[in-house]
Write a structure and sequence with these properties.
By secondary structure, the protein is an alpha/beta fold. Helix content is 48%, strand content 15%. It has 9 helices and 7 strands. The chain is elongated.
């Protein structure tokens, strides 16, 4: 009822007030905080559309004791009309942005968005593309030299495709680097992220299914990343209910 809503609002305002005080901010909790009833994902998405927000900022996707915020985040990432920044820790200066690129529409959107941020922040962009050979190479013992040779051909083809795409991409004058690798993507992305200040990536990969709220690689990175992750969704992607 209204009494509960009042108590919740007061509790959250007190928390926000302490955060602003600790940050030595001149902002008032009453001015920056809005407590609205309803399902969190739906309320946030409706509010973002109503205010024509350019960015949604969320906390970590890790499980909370009472509410699995990851489920809310996944729902937001599936339908957000603007990029979503997942901030797992304190704000830091952004000087390097890592962008996993698998040549999907979402990954190119993420790369373009990262370049826009980089121009403003005077940051460097690092595009990372990999070919996961783990399954194919596991069959070498059965297929012998013929399988090994076929894998090598596929790897080289993937490398050339990535290099051609990066050469054709409009970087807009942003300082950048590109890296091609062989191996499992999630671990490599997280390893490369150790020397970056932020990760920018699409919601789904090249083979992502529209029925899934969030691609497996994107969700795994979001769950485990210690750096902020900027997630970009293709507005044309639709989802099965």
């Amino acid at each position: 009822g209204s009494d509960l809503a009042t108590e919740v609002t007061r509790f959250v305002q007190d928390h926000v007030r302490r955060v602003l005080t600790a940050a030595q901010s001149s902002l008032r909790a009453e001015d920056v905080l809005h407590v609205l009833p309803g399902l969190p994902a739906r309320v946030l998405l409706d509010r973002a559309r109503a205010t024509q927000a350019d960015l949604l900022v969320l906390g970590s996707l890790r499980r909370r004791p009472v509410v699995d915020f990851g489920s809310t985040a996944r729902a937001i990432l599936a339908k957000a009309s603007c990029p979503v920044l997942v901030q797992p820790g304190p704000r830091t200066t952004i000087r390097s942005i890592l962008v996993p690129v698998d040549l999907s529409t979402e990954s190119f959107l993420a790369l373009a968005t990262a370049c826009t941020w980089a121009r403003v922040l005077r940051a460097r962009v690092h595009a990372l593309h990999g070919f996961d050979t783990s399954v194919a190479k596991g069959g070498r013992a059965l297929g012998g030299i013929a399988v090994a040779g076929a894998v090598d051909v596929l790897v080289e083809r993937a490398r050339r495709e990535f290099e051609a795409a990066m050469a054709a991409f409009d970087w807009g004058g942003v300082d950048h680097a590109t890296t091609f690798f062989e191996g499992e993507p999630v671990g490599r992305i997280l390893d490369e992220a150790k020397s970056a200040d932020m990760i920018a990536m699409g919601t789904h990969g090249r083979t992502g299914f529209a029925a899934l709220l969030l691609g497996s690689v994107a969700y795994a990175v979001l769950q485990r990343a210690t750096k902020p992750v900027l997630v970009v969704r293709d507005a044309e992607r639709t989802f099965l209910a």
